[in-house]
Amino acid sequence: MNLRRFRQQLGLTQSVFGQTFGNYSQRQITSYETGEIEIPMGLLLSIRKKGYPLEVVLGESQTDALDKVVGYLSASWRIHETAKRLTESVLRLLDRKVRR
After folding, report:
1. CA 7-12-14 angle, 5° bins
2. pLDDT (tens digit per residue) in 62-81
3. Cβ contacts of residue 53 below 8 Å, gap of 6+?
4. Of 12, 15, 49, 60, which sits most exposed with the smallest number of CB within 10 A?
5. Residue 34: phi, psi to the nearest 5?
6. Which residues contact 44 (CB under 8 A, 6 or more apart)?
7. pLDDT tens-place string over residues 35-71
8. Phi and psi for 13 in degrees, rounded to 5?
9. What integer pLDDT is reported at residue 76 of this predicted model?
10. Cβ atoms of 66 and 53 closer than 8 Å
């Protein structure tokens, strides 16, 4: 119910809401709004990334635990991306040395 209310407050159709928050189909959004299927983490992350508090979708009781998980995942992703960039830089440097 909270997801439906949130979408309606934004004035978006299910289709537009799905596209705006991660390319979900109208059918998927219907399933999430009715509780037929749990709201996926990707949709929650997209809602949060666009500046909306998760309470609007989850209610206040579930938000604290999820905020901790989201914080952990965000930090983990940043660390992963930093390590990836460093690895790519080292490989480029090694490639230059091999060519010389």
Report:
1. 75
2. 666 666 677 767 777 778 78
3. 63
4. 60
5. -85, -10
6. 54, 57, 58, 66, 70
7. 888 888 889 889 988 998 888 887 766 666 666 677 7
8. -75, 165
9. 77
10. no
**CA dist., res. 39 & res. 3, Å (int):** 9
DSSP per position, 7-37: HHHHT--HHHHHHHTTS--HHHHHHHHHTSS
Q: Return the C-alpha torsion angle 89, 95, 97, 98, nearest 10.
A: 160
C-alpha distances out from residue 72 to 27, 66, 99, Å: 30, 10, 41
Spatial CA neighbour of 24 closest among 50, 46, 49, 5: 46
